Amino acid sequence: MDSESLLLSLELASGSGQGLSPDRRASLLTSLTLVKRDYRYSRVLFWGRILGLVADYYIAQGLSEDQLAPRKTLYSLNCMEWSLLPPATEEMAVETSVVKGRFMGDPSHEYEHTELQKMKEGEKVFEEEVVVQIKEENRLVSVINQIDKAVAVIPRGALFKTPFGPIHVNRTFEGLSLSEAKKLSSYFHFREPVELKNKTLLEKADLDPSLDFMDSLEHDIPKATLQGGYCYHPHFTGSWSIQMERGNALVVLRSLLWPGLTFFHAPRTKNYGYIYMGTGEKNIDLPFML
After folding, report:
1. DSSP output for 227-277
2. CA 203 to chain centre
3. 72 in helix, strand or coil?
4. Which residues are CB-neighbours of 220 under 8 A, at least 6 positions away?
5. Rounded CA gap, 5 and 273, in Å?
6. How crowded is residue 28: how many other Cβ atoms within 10 Å of its Cβ?
7. 289 or 232: which leads in pLDDT
8. pTM, to two decimals
């Protein structure tokens, strides 16, 4: 959610229990304004909170003029002092994939993992148990990156692609219509496209290149369906649930793959955003629950 509309966004997301105390809200309003100024970001998003056993991580992201350029991620333990996290790497993802359970809430904490490594002594090859230290900060970076790739959401039309390539905020976006807001195809993954690149020219014929340049949520596997074609009572047969709330004045998408991720949009308005508040644990049992 955009830091400049933080209070309204938190209010719209409050139906999912995504509230923050008045003290935290006030601290975020002040500190995120300073983050935007000091780091010279085009936009700053309040990403959410990852719950730890000792302390919680509050996460923010800085965006450049090109909205799909790699985002800079920062964390704070008190909503006032922010530290920049390193970029996510494949090596980091592999290293931290063996860590399970809750975060501690201490970036300097090190998990211990025992693994078998092949050792060589002369011509003899044997396996030996080695204890590997894994920093929680690396795990934090990896989990945020996974959540961004899998469930960061933006409504169709909120961004537009120029003929020269860069992606900008669409200042003329006035929100989705009520009928569009009920369709999963009206929402895109807020990242570089993956599925779209594999489509043929014929499949792309009906797409608007200035608006339809990201992957739609309707292609997520497992796919989501709505009971009776309406959104009032979500039918949990996919990785998303959709609900219309406040008398059709608000649409809410919740991820079943990463519990804690909530996207909201008030149809016919510019108000939209997403927030993650959870333990940073993926629901790996989802395919067996559907």
Report:
1. GGG-SSSEE-SSSEEEEEETTTTEEEEEESSSTTEEEEE-TTSS-EEEEEE
2. 27
3. strand
4. 238, 239, 240
5. 10
6. 22
7. 289
8. 0.88
CA distance 129 to 69: 41
Q: Which residues pair with 127 in a beta bridge?
A: 118
Question: What gap in Å lies between CA 174 and CA 12, rounded to an integer?
Answer: 17
Q: How many residues does the chain have?
A: 290
What DSSP designation does 190 have? S
Q: Confirm if 249 and 231 have CB atoms less than 8 A apart.
A: no
Burial 241-274 (b: 16+ CB within 10 A, else e): bbbbbeeeebbbbbbbbbbbbbbbbbbeebbbbb
- The string over 90-99, giving b where at least 16 C-beta atoms fall within 10 Å of a residue's C-beta and e elsewhere, is eebbebbeeb
Both tokens of residue 259? 């519990």
Q: Which two tokens stand for residue 6?
A: 């933080």
What phi, psi does 88 have (nearest 5°)? -75, 145
63 CB contacts (<8 Å, ≥6 apart)?
41, 42, 43, 44, 45, 69, 71
- How far apart are the C-alpha atoms of 94 and 116, rounded to whole Å? 15
Among candidates 70, 81, 20, 11, which has minimal Cα distance to 273?
A: 11
pLDDT in tens, 179-215: 999 999 999 999 999 888 777 776 677 788 889 999 9
Residue 71 pLDDT grade (very low, low, confident, very high; cuts 50, 70, 90): very high
If DSSP states are collapsed to H, E and C, what string results for 196-212?
Answer: HHHCCCCCCCCCCCCCC
**Residue 101 to residue 97: CA distance in whole angstroms:** 11
Q: Which residues pair with 117 in a beta bridge?
A: 128
**Distance in angstroms (rounded) separating the CA atoms of residues 287 and 223:** 11
